Amino acid sequence: MTSVVVGGSQNGVMSQAQFRAFQAGRPDHERWELVAGVPRKIVTTIVHNIITGRLVALLSNALMEQDPTRLACPRPGVELGVGGNDCPEPDVAVFDADYAPGQRFTSQCYLLAEIVSDSDNQTVPGTSERWIEVKRRLYREHVPCEAVVVIQEDRIDVLVDVKTATGWQSERLTALDQLMIMPRFGLKCSVADLYRNTPLTLRQGTGKRL
What we know:
By secondary structure, this protein is α+β, with helices and mostly antiparallel strands. The protein has a single domain, classed as tt1808, chain A (Alpha-Beta Complex). It has helices spanning about 15-25, 45-65, 130-140, 190-195; strands at about 1-5, 30-35, 40-45, 70-75, 75-80, 90-95, 105, 110-115, 145-150, 160-165, 165-175, 180, 185-190. The strands form 4 sheets. The chain has a 6-stranded mixed sheet. Strands 1-3-2 form a 3-stranded antiparallel sheet, sandwiched between helices. Helix 3 links the parallel strand 8 and strand 9 (about 145-150).
């Protein structure tokens, strides 16, 4: 994923209201998000989109069995309510299946996921934090959120944060045969399932992908 950062309003910082007004004037196919008052346009790679689709499919199938009152959706607009100048756009979110026709944003997400590329590891202008660090923190601060998933698109690396009664617990998965188990969402899949049909699961010497 690459991104284009644009100037905000006064002092280069844009509020949520200013960002939504700016966003409304952009073409529907464009993806924009606001982090620490800095708006940026998101452009994704094929690998990024494949992994996003895989995670949505895996979560959707699991939720149909575990909890059909929730659904998985790619790239939803979210209003997390955690700051005056943040409107992040996750790659995948789980929220209530009861939504209104024409609804663009949701304010209650139970799982938030990011597929990370080089641009997400760049520092947010005016801060000392990387884009992905800020977004992960914002997601964990979102009160209804029960899980955060951060998937690297250039290597086998999945970071899973799960909220427990005593706080957040994190696990990093770096092998294709490791399992990602999230009982609250009915999900049990291998890391290979997330990376299927990407160059990272290319079988050496066969030219075939897992």
